[in-house]
Specification:
The longest helix has 22 residues. Strand 2, helix 15 and strand 3 form a beta-alpha-beta unit. The protein is built from 19 helices and nine strands. It folds into two domains: 110 residues; 213 residues, Rossmann fold, CATH 3.40.50. Helices cover 52% and strands 16% of the residues. The structure holds S-adenosylmethionine.
Length: 383
């Protein structure tokens, strides 16, 4: 098999997901939430959560640590699927997943964003770019051996060969439809056989590799996507196992996916939050904005400060209920929360949909009923 094909295996969606990406994502969430499913009090806790939602008492939902695993197990699966498809549908979002980039996800402790974005990352395959690097390298005939060595270094950096083969060895016994075995095989062969230069080329290559490998080191992270999960409660009990499962089942090593958390009330507008905003390529508000608007004054201030701190060219993704939950009463009039953002002069609307459905395909299996989601979507660009 050619080098480029072997390299591509690591991030080949078919190899990673098997036949059904959606089912694979659900399996990842289910495995991450195993602790919750084992709770004898699962059903009663879920009823308590639902009644707090009904009363719009969001603090009562999220400020009780006992609720968090149950909340994730119930709400993260369909949201993760919805966000996965949302990213796939929008090239501007997929572009951020090629890296290097930072995605700041406000109110994302429950893990839906982590699962959905990570799954979409598998499709944002930077390894394919190796093809171009190889072609141009091959043109340099006088440094043939060196070029091969360079491609090999490039391929390893792109695919994170070491991480991948380590990660996939964990997945062999699990539900990846045989993909893990192929992937490991591919990556092992990649490092061993990607160049077989002649003796002369070998000498040139090793000299060139020594000199070329060092300055190339930063390139190992050139496709790294940092996902910052911001939330006002500590969801590490959910996010840590989920990250482990994602790394293993979606074959995403730390050179590709970096996970960070930021704990604090977003409405406090801390310096550290604004620093994160200033560095972000994409900021997401997924099913959190209407909750925040319970405190209109502070949320208006939050929005204006965040938009001011966003770098020019950065994007903001907002999705939330398309129903009355997203109503915002100002004086005698009622608006949808996105209307406030739509009118901000420094934001350009890149995409808008006031009401769309994400419907979970009936063929999918999960221990709980999956929820179809009617929601609005906005993608803005900071001018
Ligand atoms: C309805 S959940 C949505 C979770 C997630 N974004 C999703 O789509 O599944 C709202 C999330 O926002 C968090 N949250 C609520 N108020 C917040 C605040 N003031 N600051 C930061 N996070 C907050 C909650 O802890 C919870 O994780």
């Amino acid at each position: 098999m050619e080098d480029k094909k072997k390299a591509a295996i690591a991030n080949d969606p078919k190899k990673v997901f098997g036949r059904s990406p959606d089912q694979h994502i659900l399996n990842v969430v289910r495995e991450s939430c195993q602790e919750a499913f084992n709770l004898p009090s699962f059903e009663t806790t879920l009823q308590t959560i639902k009644s707090h939602f009904f009363d719009r008492n969001y603090d009562a939902v999220f400020q009780n640590p006992a609720h968090l695993p149950v909340y994730s197990a119930r709400y993260a699966p369909s949201r993760a699927l919805c966000y996965y498809h949302l990213f796939l549908d929008h090239p501007v979002l997929m572009k951020t997943l090629e890296g290097p980039s930072t995605i700041l996800c406000i109110g994302s402790g429950a893990g839906s964003e982590l699962a959905g974005i990570s799954a979409a990352m598998v499709h944002a395959n930077p390894v394919l770019k190796v093809k171009k690097v190889k072609k141009s390298a091959d043109k340099e005939k006088s440094i043939k051996g060196a070029a091969k060595a360079e491609v090999q270094v490039e391929v390893q950096a792109e695919a994170g060969a070491e991480e991948m083969s380590k990660d996939t060895s964990d997945t062999k016994d699990n539900d990846t439809n045989g993909a893990a075995e192929d992937t490991t095989l591919g990556m092992e062969k990649l490092t061993v056989t990607s160049s077989e230069p002649t003796q002369e080329q070998s000498a040139e290559a090793s000299a060139a590799a020594v000199t070329k490998t060092k300055p190339k080191k930063p390139k190992a992270n050139k496709h790294q996507v940092t996902v910052v999960m911001q939330d006002y409660v500590d969801w590490s009990r959910i996010l840590e196992p989920m990250e482990t499962v994602i790394r293993s089942r979606m074959v995403l090593g730390p050179e590709r996916l970096q996970c960070e958390t930021e704990i604090g009330n977003v409405l406090d507008l801390s310096d550290s939050l604004l620093e994160r905003v200033a560095k972000a390529d994409l900021i997401t508000f997924m099913f959190v904005l209407n909750e925040l608007f319970q405190d209109k004054k502070r949320t208006m201030l939050l929005v204006s400060k965040i938009v001011a701190a966003m770098p020019s060219g950065a994007h903001m993704l907002v999705a939330d209920s398309a129903g009355s939950f997203s109503n915002l009463k100002v004086g005698e009039r009622t608006y949808m929360v996105y209307m406030l953002l739509d009118h901000l002069k420094s934001l350009e609307i890149v995409y808008q949909d006031d009401a769309t459905w994400y419907r979970c395909p009936p063929s999918l299996t999960y221990p709980l009923k999956l929820e179809n989601m009617r929601h609005f979507v906005r993608i803005y660009k900071k001018l």
